[in-house]
Design goal:
Oligomer: single chain
Strand content: 15-25%
Strand order of the largest sheet: 6-10-9-12-8-13
Radius of gyration: 27 Å
Number of strands: 25
Number of helices: 12
CATH class of the largest domain: Mainly Alpha
Bound molecules: zinc ion
């Protein structure tokens, strides 16, 4: 912290004691993202285009909630790679080794809490911080801000990302429906001299090496020291460069082997495959896995581009072949599937596992592991059972096969049962098929036997008729048994329908 900041800090402490911070009542709040960037740029004399490009790189102009990548302390060796402690569209940082959030609060007189939660103020805080880093002179030429941007983002890779966006322009619609466009800027140089050149080759030929700090992983000699039998899929909760830069920060206490970029699928490697990266939040899982981070936020599907899926799937296919990792959902898992003490839930519900796994299989050229699937229809007498409370109908043309079963909701449980074969223990996507009709039940319950006992899924059979409807993915044991049922009990009204079900190994 320089002298000027210290002076400001003293000044603000005084003013805040008087309950109103400087600046908080000067500007009227506007609801428009574009206006918020404009106001912040004018107030702190920073180029608006630059702020826009930074906001786009950081969060695609979304305002993530403070908990999206809040700082978290975990035991050494476990790792919480996404918990960098960065906040808002301008990614102000607060963790034990860095406090640009506090610095922005000092510079603007806005409280840290408001900087974390209020988009317009967060943008103002980012602008103030960038202006402070840049110093007295505020050049017109965007290129002359390069070093300040690199410092703001804890490394030249961040500036590289920002200047690429300035050069190409960007356009996005936020989840709140605000559309924003940044025009391509003339004369911008994305690759400037600050850029660190990779000094060593990566383990994977499709990756570029950006070695992590040795404080953030455990040196080992895998696969001889520990077998590698899992790939763990993560989402960074921040930009690609923010993840790579954090892994290079000796205080971060976390790392992942690879990080894949959203815009083009570019892969950076931070930790050698033989070494144990701290990414899973669980030491035994770290010991036996390779962690792949994907740029983006779990709450925003915009980040999950086709290029990113394909590039990551190629990498996973390569790793699976190299280490003999089975290509299935027991061995290629999400951070969310790592047990306690892990508490992270990435990659989240927008991550398309079916797409990802089929790409991994495709790139591995492995037709033998093509997803196993089984359909059981009510007409299959060896694999379907329903008691006499269930009638038979062929009324709807949306039926699967020649007919389907129907029952009035009853007080005593007499569900229709499907005998399903799940050849290996692992994750299975379960689908239901029914004809839809306004007289059918609006709260039909499917029961699925999982490794954690019975799980239920409630659907309306008044809609989505005549097609496979995804009921969710479930961990199931290697069994050939009566593991899926349609309940005859319902809190809804109308006939309950039992037609066909399908399981697909993931
Ligand atoms: Zn993760």
């Amino acid at each position: 912290m320089n002298y000027r900041v210290l002076v400001l800090l003293t000044f603000c402490a005084f003013v805040v004691a008087g309950t109103v911070g400087p600046g908080t009542n000067v500007e009227a709040r506007t609801g428009s993202l574009d206006a918020e960037f404009g106001a912040a740029a004018r107030k702190y004399e920073v180029p608006k285009e630059l702020l826009l490009a930074m906001g786009y790189v950081n969060t695609r102009w979304e305002m993530p909630p403070p908990e999206a990548s809040a700082y978290e302390e975990v035991e050494p060796g476990e790792g919480a790679p996404e918990a960098r402690g960065s906040y808002g569209v301008m990614q102000l940082v607060q963790n034990p080794s860095e406090d640009t959030l506090g610095e922005a609060a000092t510079l603007t007189g806005i409280s840290e809490e408001r900087l974390k939660k209020d988009r317009a103020r967060n943008i103002r805080g980012g602008a103030a911080l960038l202006a402070e880093i840049q110093g007295e002179t505020k050049p017109e030429d965007l290129n002359e801000w390069y070093e300040a941007v690199a410092e703001y983002g804890s490394g030249p890779l961040y500036a590289e990302q920002v200047y690429e966006v300035l050069e190409k322009g960007a356009s996005a619609e936020t989840s709140a429906g605000e559309k924003l466009t940044l025009e391509a800027q003339e004369g911008v140089e994305p690759q400037q001299m600050l850029t660190t050149q990779a000094t060593q080759a990566a383990d994977y030929s499709g990756a570029t090496w950006y070695g992590a700090s040795s404080y953030n992983y455990t040196a080992a000699s895998r696969p001889s020291s520990n077998r590698i039998d899992k790939i763990i899929v993560h989402v960074t909760q921040g930009s690609w460069s923010s993840a790579i830069n954090a892994f290079q920060n000796s205080s971060h206490q976390a790392s992942a082997h690879y990080t894949v970029r959203s815009s083009d699928g570019f892969v950076g490697q931070s930790v050698r495959e033989k070494d144990i990266a701290w990414h899973a939040g669980n030491w035994p899982y770290n010991q036996t896995s390779i962690g792949i981070e994907h740029e983006g936020y779990v709450s925003d599907p915009k980040w999950f581009t086709d290029s990113m899926y394909r590039s990551s799937a190629k990498l996973s296919a390569h790793l699976a072949k190299k280490y003999g990792i089975p290509i299935d959902r027991s061995h290629i898992i999400g951070h969310v599937e790592v047990p306690y003490p892990n508490t992270h839930y990435d990659p989240g519900s927008y991550w398309d596992w079916n797409k990802y796994m089929s790409l991994v299989r495709q790139y591995a050229g492995d037709t033998s592991t093509t997803a196993y699937s089984q359909v059981v229809d009510n007409t299959n007498s060896n694999r379907f059972y329903a008691a006499s409370n269930w009638g038979t109908s062929s009324y709807s043309s949306q039926r699967y096969g020649s007919n389907y079963k129907f029952a009035r909701p009853g007080a005593t449980y007499k569900g229709a049962k499907y005998k399903v074969k799940t050849p290996t223990r692992g994750s299975y996507a379960v689908y239901g098929w029914w004809p839809a009709n306004s007289g059918y039940n609006d709260r039909t319950v499917f029961w699925i036997w999982t490794t954690n006992g019975w799980a239920s899924k409630t659907v309306s059979q008044r809609t989505n008729g005549g097609k496979w409807v995804y009921l969710g993915a479930y961990q199931m044991d290697a069994l050939d048994d009566w593991n899926v049922e349609v309940s005859n009990q319902s809190s809804g009204t109308g006939y309950v329908i039992a037609d066909a079900i399908k399981v697909v190994r993931q």
